[in-house]
């Protein structure tokens, strides 16, 4: 079967394309403004990607078109699919029918930490010999790819609450029917499709309704909105973790690279790994508990953490030049921004300055939903620089007065950052997009000034 994927370079749709290819289908696709890592993953797998949405790419007509949720009526390819009555489906529905239906699905949902937690859980199952299939919203460095199909009964998936498609406005995750479900946290986000937090809570409750009574819910006890989800009705055993839960972590090092796992006050294990950040320690605990539900002993899961390599674009060291290190991170919500800054600060210790660089690119950021809390999220940095594009829709400079240097021009912002930098600085670049390649441009200009030493975590 020839499957054509519209919006193929999104992390989810790219993963669907990789799974369809692994299932034996001929796969092509199209998108605009592609950027790594998905563009590189698709090229590596030999999947042909058309730039743009010229309907000519549908000649001859594919057997099925899978339409990403970023596309809507008026898109030339969408209109051609409808006019020519080419069979079409959404990515989540196709995935549920063709890949997940006969498998034990372990899903990770929440506002923050989904990609990292999904990657940790997948690696634990891999090290335990369960050979899981997976679909992750990023490139897990242990696997070098975002999606994989195996003959294992286990499949791990990042469960996103964003809507499914222009013709199906339910959250993606209601299609997945997990047996094991992690609920990491829940805050207001995706303001372009959800009017308020209550609307997201409703979608999370719809997800809970699909988990069987023989399944398991791994729920962050420190997230009040998740309790509201449970209060709407719950038919599955719950294991609470984090503050207030039966399962908790105790840091054995300030950066979180060594920690203890405690159940109701009793020590159950001690872990050591190469990932920084208190939030990542809790991600690891959730993954350990989910793997335990699938039959992986706690000590086996803890041992697997030692070799976990992280996720691309999650506090990823892109390189060092002239004594300055540049990190790349996907953080785009104030909570995640503050947590990522804290993680790098803990990793740095007392040496050097932390320079934060932010592109407020998400739809929620562009709408100004977080403008009241953004300044506080940046205060853990020694200096902050923020890009404010012309279409941002709110006064970034006024909101961040006294907190960050703001510029509407990438080149100007780049120069402002370079003028500030000195040896020993750690630069943390945060965006859920390509950010005009600012990471590489910073390193290239620093290299021109001095000798370069590159490295990658």
Characterization of this structure:
There is one protein chain. The chain has 457 residues and is of the alpha/beta class. The chain has 3 domains: 2-90, Rossmann fold; 102-305, UDP-N-acetylmuramoyl-L-alanine:D-glutamate ligase, CATH 3.40.1190.10; 316-453, Mur ligase, C-terminal domain (Protein-Tyrosine Phosphatase, Chain A). The chain is built from 15 helices and 24 strands. The chain has helices at residues 11-22, 38-44, 76-83, 91-100, 114-127, 197-208, 224-231, 278-293, 298-305, 334-348, 363-366, 371-377, 396-399, 410-420, 438-449; strands at residues 2-6, 26-31, 48-51, 64-67, 88-90, 104-109, 133-140, 145-148, 154-158, 163-165, 168-171, 180-183, 216-220, 238-241, 247-251, 258-263, 266-272, 316-321, 324-329, 354-358, 383-387, 405-407, 426-430, 452-453. The strands form 5 sheets. Strands 8-7-9-6-12-13-14 form a 7-stranded mixed sheet, with helices on both faces. A hairpin with a 2-residue loop joins strand 16 and strand 17 (266-272). Helix 1 (11-22) packs parallel to helix 4 (91-100). It is globular and about 60 Å long.
């Amino acid at each position: 079967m020839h499957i054509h994927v519209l919006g193929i370079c999104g992390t989810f749709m790219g993963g669907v394309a990789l799974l369809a290819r692994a299932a034996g289908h001929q796969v092509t696709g199209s998108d605009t403004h592609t950027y790594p890592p998905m563009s590189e993953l698709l090229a590596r797998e030999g999947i042909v990607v058309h730039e743009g949405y010229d309907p000519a790419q549908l000649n001859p007509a594919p057997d099925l078109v899978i339409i990403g949720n970023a596309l809507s009526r008026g898109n030339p390819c969408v209109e051609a699919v409808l006019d020519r009555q080419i069979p079409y489906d959404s990515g989540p529905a196709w995935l549920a029918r063709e890949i997940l239906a006969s498998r034990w699905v372990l899903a990770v949902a929440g506002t923050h930490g989904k990609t990292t937690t999904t990657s940790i859980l997948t690696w634990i199952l891999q090290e335990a010999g369960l050979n899981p299939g997976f679909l992750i919203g990023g490139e897990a460095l242990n696997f070098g790819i975002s999606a994989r199909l195996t003959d294992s009964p286990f499949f791990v998936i990042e469960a996103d609450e964003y809507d499914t498609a222009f013709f199906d406005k339910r959250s993606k995750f209601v299609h997945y029917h997990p047996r094991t479900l992690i609920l990491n946290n829940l805050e207001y986000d995706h303001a372009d499709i959800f009017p308020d937090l209550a609307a997201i809570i409703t979608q999370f409750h719809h997800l809970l309704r699909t988990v069987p009574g023989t399944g398991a819910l791994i729920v962050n006890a420190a997230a009040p909105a998740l309790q509201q989800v449970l209060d709407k009705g719950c038919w599955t055993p719950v294991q609470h973790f984090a503050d207030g839960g039966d399962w908790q972590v105790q840091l054995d090092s300030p950066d979180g690279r060594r920690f203890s796992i405690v159940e109701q006050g009793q020590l159950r294990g001690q872990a050591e790994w190469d990932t920084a950040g208190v939030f990542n320690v809790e991600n690891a605990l959730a993954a350990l508990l989910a793997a335990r539900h699938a039959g992986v002993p706690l000590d086996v899961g803890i041992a697997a953490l030692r070799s976990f390599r992280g996720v691309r674009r999650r506090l990823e060291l892109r390189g060092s030049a002239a004594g300055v290190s540049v990190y790349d991170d996907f953080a785009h919500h104030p909570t995640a921004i503050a947590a990522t800054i804290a993680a790098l600060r803990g990793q740095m210790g007392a040496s050097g300055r932390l320079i934060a660089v932010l592109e407020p690119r998400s739809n929620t950021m562009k709408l100004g939903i977080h403008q009241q809390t953004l300044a506080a999220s940046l205060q853990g940095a020694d200096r902050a620089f923020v890009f404010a594009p012309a279409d941002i829709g709110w006064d970034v400079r006024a909101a961040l007065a006294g907190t960050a240097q703001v510029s509407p021009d990438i080149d100007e912002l780049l120069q402002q950052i370079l003028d500030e930098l000195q040896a020993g600085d750690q630069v943390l670049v945060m965006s859920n997009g390509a950010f005009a390649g600012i990471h590489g441009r910073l390193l290239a200009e620093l290299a021109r000034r001095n000798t370069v030493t590159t490295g990658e975590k």
